[in-house]
Amino acid sequence: MLEYIILGLLMEGKMSGYDLKKTIDSSVGFFYKASFGSIYPALKRLTDKALVSVEEIEDSKNKKLYSLVPEGKESFLIWLSRPLELSRNDHLSKIFFYDYLDEDTRQQRLAEYQVKLNHEMHHLQAVQQIVAGELTEVEHPENYYYRVSVLAYGLNHSNMEKQWIKDIKERKELNHDNFNK
């Protein structure tokens, strides 16, 4: 997956490994995490597969700029056009078994998760304000529709998840009638 994310980001233009990390953190980093320790090996693999080219900058110590080559663009677009797949939410696997935990531990872990969700919400809202400002300055804001839609998804999903965690912390009554339909 990381290799395709890198190819997609390079569709925008040349980037260094550092630039890629910053861009990942501020964009797809909301749903996909990547470290420098994973980015640089992925760049090496992409270079070895001749999907990206690398240019060493002479005036900078060890700085390399990576560019998408036509084969890389083709590979990215083939991947991008494949059908979407459902993803897993690892935290749900743990919560599924929370009946085995004592109540204090359950409540503590759920409260910690709420804090993380609140932090994510604040971060997404800050990004939303930045993006709204940036979109007023670009010539064709409609060309960013799907990118902005992922941000909207993140906000909606985080709101839903916050409510769900609140409900299970309070042990709200489940409507078992819905399971029998």
Structural description of this entry:
By secondary structure, the protein is mainly alpha-helical. It has 2 domains: 2-81, Arc Repressor Mutant, subunit A; 90-180. Helices cover 60% and strands 6% of the residues. A two-stranded antiparallel sheet has the order 1-2. The longest helix is centred in the middle third of the chain and has 33 residues, at 103-135. It is elongated. The mean pLDDT is 87.
Describe, in short, the structure shown.
With 181 residues, the protein is mainly α.
Topology:
Layout: H1 2-10, H2 17-26, H3 36-48, E1 52-56, E2 64-68, H4 70-81, H5 90-96, H6 103-135, H7 145-169
Antiparallel strand pairs: 1-2
Q: Which structural class do you get from the secondary structure elements? A: mainly alpha
What order do the SSEs take from the amino end to the carboxyl end, as H and E? HHHEEHHHH
Q: How is the largest sheet built, in terms of strand order?
A: 1-2
* N-to-C span: 37 Å
Helix content: 55-70%
Structural domain tally = 2
Please report the total strand number as a whole number. Answer: 2
Instruction: Describe the largest sheet.
Output: 2 strands, antiparallel
The general outline is: elongated
Radius of gyration: 21 Å
Into which percentage range does the β-strand content fall?
A: 5-15%
Low-confidence stretches: none
Number of H/I helices: 7
Instruction: Report the average pLDDT across residues.
Output: 87
